[in-house]
Amino acid sequence: MARKSLRVWRWAAMLVALSVLTAGCAQGGASSGSVHLNFMVWSYGIDTIQDNIKKFQSSNPSVTVSLADTSWFNYHDTMATKFTAGGAPDVAYSSDHWLREWVSAGWIVPIDQYCPSLASYKDEWAPYALQGMTLNNHVYGLPYYADMVIFIYNDKLLKQAGFDHPPATWEELTSQAQTIKSKGISQYPIDIPMKKDDPWTIEIFYSMVYGRGGHMFDSNTNPTFAESGGPAEQTLSWLRSAYASKILDPAVFESAEPDVVKTTGSGQHVFTVLAKYNLAELNQGQHAQKGNFKMALMPGSQHSTVGFVRFYSLTKAAVSHGDAAVKASCNFLQYFGGKTDGQYKVVKRWAVEKGLGFANLPLYDDSDVSKSINAWGNVDLERQQAKTANVKEGLTRWWGTWDIYAREQIDNAVSGSSTPSQALQNMNTKWSQLKS
Amino acid sequence: MQAEIGLRPNLVRRWANGVPAHPWLTVAPVLALVALFTIFPFIYAAVTSTRQMILTLPDQTPFVGLKNYLDVLQDASARQAAVNAVVFSVVAVTAVTLLGLLVALLLNQPIRGFGILRALVLLPWAIPLVSAGIIWRLLLHGDFGAFNGLLLQLGIVHSYIPWLSSRQLALGAVIVAHVWREFPLPAILFLAGLQVIPPDVVDAATVDGAGAWQRFRYVILPLLKAPLLIVLVYETMIAVTVFDLVYVLTGGGPGSATTLFSWYAYAATFHFLNLGQGAALSFIMAAVLLLFIAIYLRLLRVGRDDT
Amino acid sequence: MAAAILLGLVIALPFLWVVSASLQTETGIFRRPPSWLPDPVTIDNYGYVFTGKIPEAYAARGLLRSTVTQEAQYLPIGLQNSVMVATSVVLINLLLGTLAAYTFARERFRGQAAAFSFILTSRLLPGMAVAIPTYMIIRQLGLLDSKTALVLIYSAFTLPFTIWVLTLYFRSLPRDYEEAAQVDGCTRFQALRHIVLPLAAPGLAAVGAFSFLFSYDEFLFALLTTSSLNSKTVPVMIATISVNPDASYTLIAVGIVLSIIAPIILATIFRRFITSGLVSSLGRA
């Protein structure tokens, strides 16, 4: 009697366990004929994105889109987890500095191959954007937005110190900053993000090197930054002396982009180097000094800077979901990164509403766009800077890993716990290690 | 023993009593659930640590034996992280224990209104670590920290201090946030320990002419040995695995000043995407923790089968 | 006494600042030094989270642009998720944990010591070591981005502690009452329900509070397995908002305040139980 009950118990328990384990395997069924896409972004302007999705869905009734997001700081690592352990979305944001890594790992696929109708858009992109999305003659995305790192200064405080023009070289910046400091206008006139986990740290360093007309890598992607006395070393030395002479905010190592924006906006600093959309924020956001900020060409003999592009990518997950999913994804990409009724509707919306830059050159001719840019920036100066904007060099499969190591070395050099040349040597060694 | 001999009749009797036919029925589901999230991941981590597994090279996962472990031992940054962890642990555990003890001594006094204080003491420990970390960031930031502002207003400093940007101060700042968050635990344990000390013992010492310090040193402290040992071991385990705070406050910086070993393992896994090495690092941490747990269990004497 | 006041300040000041910051204007908190008493006071940030009404100070002249992050509006949903997950974990702990603990305390069976030791040492691996394999398990079960996944993981993490505490607790209760009840004809289970549990109420309250706090406060696994509002919990949300360039720091402060209300209430109400639970589980030699 007892034994039989025991057996019944055991079977019941196993059935329960089995059903629990398999319950999750049943996928929520979409209605027949409709396609479901997963779209992954980093957490910025989610409301706007969802509104865009709604509009897309209404004009594509057979497609439903689910949006997921995670913070920009985590984005790369979260996506790496998803691509390898599963759960990857069909369409996802990506960035030029991850392109090689994601392509060589097979995580994203060429747009020109899977969505041939979208291939012609590339003719309308800024050169640095096209470069940032192309690998081995294949294009891997449509731009979400493209922008540059620029030099920003507080015009009002600058004039207060008696200067009538922004600095054209880093040496001039040093002397202007020292004057401003001695006049008590700002305790630390220069502030840039150098927090170790802020991805902007490396982009800004690159921009400063480019400004001097320098390079970080040669055309064969070999490191040139460790060259003794070269532009990278000069940049690090300049940063080091700015820190030592206290014209650079000592809190830079704990400041990420938002911190720099807010404290500069409150009037604590006069000069900074940031992505251009921050100029829109500084002049229109909730800041004590709002409206006083202007852009200048990147200091240095060449005034060159970093241009970057963030784009919508088509993932291997979409391909594995079949032709219907790919086709729906292509329509999705078309809506978000391409033209609807002859207009780049979504890109224009980001530009006008949020001040995000764009890769699609025709938009400069749009009067709405240039008017909105001039409300906080300077269209002509922006176009001029764009001419000398370059992609980040050295974007190989392991660049992302090297980047994290490099930021730490840069911090060490600037704070004085290492020397510029030592830091660059370490970065060089690490590069060779990762390459092998 | 008895149960084993009389298994069958026992079963029948207990079944009649309405007890589940076998005790394992209530224990098994729990064991299964726990095992699912401990044994499988543990084995996976063990296996992974013997392979080279870099997420951006998904097709090359050769077996490399102990290479990952050797790499860690030879890596200067790993050694630095270990040193940081040791420094952090020693200072943090000492601070937390001392503060806990002082607070317990304070709160042991039957003064009116201390009830509120006793309630307040638990709060830092209850809130999410991420929230605590962000609060401390808002307090300590070199450009807008409210604590800096307070120091400025009180005239203690004439300029904001970049706590989290200075190599020397950053680790201290993390320790401060950690201590603020952790001290309620030792405080409660010591308080409970103090409350079971018979007042006659202390009174006798006073009668014998012992001063406050002597009373503490020779009467109270010896009686607190048990909670003291437990606090030391437990807090060391916590200090070794500190992670959330580093994540929110410093991200391991500036430079590598606050890169503790646990953070280093996280970075290896999720930043450098080197799963093999991350698994090896976690294993090393696990070994250290296992040692502490063994000591801990010894102390509690739960290892012995007592019923 | 001065020491008591100092202690009170040390504990309270961080909380006071974050509450103050949540009621200030953005330009206000960036003054040097910032004022601890909000001046001017504004509840607009709270209003934004709960009603979506954009504070006047944020509206830029002539543009649709709002510089305040919309993500903050989802905080109430995050709170809901957190509370639902935490409550489910508490229930599982109370049900499964009690049964298992009672078995350990009152029964004798083969493999008991091994099972108990396994339970005690099962959480020794640091979270990040098992994070990816755990993620894979969750994905295999089809439970990514679900509250169910979090409930499972957190239950696995909290049950060992619950069982440990309750086992000690049950063992410390004299068997007389249960045996008397059995003589009167109660089954073992009825004895558990009607006699033991009421006596063990403080222990149950303690483990309930712990399980809740652990699940509510947990961050790393929530970060990895959640991706949308279906399951995002509060710690993940505020961590995300805190690095969003669009988020004003006053808004972040609001997020923090909202995130700590539940634990503070819980810790205050259940203070005695938590204390005794901690003492009995950690302090007994």
Explain what the structure shows:
- The complex is a heterotrimer of chains A (436), B (307) and C (285).
- Chain A is of the alpha/beta class and 436 residues long.
- In chain A, 48% of the residues lie in helices and 14% in strands.
- Chain A has 2 domains: 34-146 and 309-372, D-Maltodextrin-Binding Protein, domain 2 (3-Layer(aba) Sandwich); 148-307 and 379-435, D-Maltodextrin-Binding Protein, domain 2, CATH 3.40.190.
- In chain A, the strands form 2 sheets. In chain A, strands 1, 2, 3, 4, 7, 8, 9, 10 and 11 form a 9-stranded mixed β-sheet that branches.
- In chain A, strand 5 and strand 6 form a beta hairpin.
- Chain B has one domain (76-306): MetI-like fold.
- Chain B has 18 helices and no strands.
- Chain B starts with a helix and ends in a 7-residue tail after the last helix.
- Mean pLDDT of chain B is 81; it is low at 1-7 and 302-307.
- With 285 residues, chain C is mainly alpha-helical.
Task: Describe this structure in a few short sentences.
The complex is a heterotrimer of chains A (436), B (307) and C (285). Chain B is mostly helical and 307 residues long.
Helix-strand blueprint:
The complex is a heterotrimer of chains A (436), B (307) and C (285).
Chain A lengths: L1 H22 L11 E8 L3 H14 L3 E8 L1 H14 L5 E5 L3 H6 L3 E2 L1 H4 L12 H7 E2 L2 E2 L2 E13 H6 L9 H13 L17 H12 L19 H14 L12 H9 L5 E5 L1 H8 L8 E4 L8 E11 H5 L2 H15 L7 H10 L12 H10 L2 H9 L1 E2 L8 H17 L4 H16 L1
Parallel strand pairs in A: 1-2, 1-3, 10-11
Antiparallel strand pairs in A: 3-10, 4-10, 5-6, 7-8, 7-9, 7-10
Helix pairs in contact in A: 9-10, 10-18, 11-12, 15-16, 18-19
Chain B lengths: L1 H4 L1 H10 L7 H13 L2 H11 L17 H8 L1 H32 L6 H8 L1 H4 L2 H12 L5 H8 L13 H16 L1 H12 L3 H9 L4 H12 L1 H16 L3 H6 L11 H11 L3 H26 L7
Helix pairs in contact in B: 4-18, 5-18, 6-11, 6-12, 6-15, 6-17, 12-15, 13-14, 15-18, 17-18
Chain C lengths: L1 H21 L3 H4 L14 H8 L23 H32 L5 H10 L5 H14 L6 H26 L3 H8 L4 H12 L1 H17 L2 H6 L8 H9 L6 H21 L1 H13 L2
Helix pairs in contact in C: 1-13, 4-7, 4-10, 5-7, 7-10, 8-9, 10-14, 12-13
Helix/strand order of chain A, N-terminal first = HEHEHEHEHHEEEHHHHHEHEEHHHHHEHH
* Tally of DSSP helical segments of chain C: 14
Taking Cα atoms only, what radius of gyration of chain A do you get, to the nearest Å?
Answer: 25 Å
CATH superfamily of the largest domain in chain A: Periplasmic binding protein-like II
Q: What is the CATH topology of the largest domain in chain A?
A: D-Maltodextrin-Binding Protein, domain 2
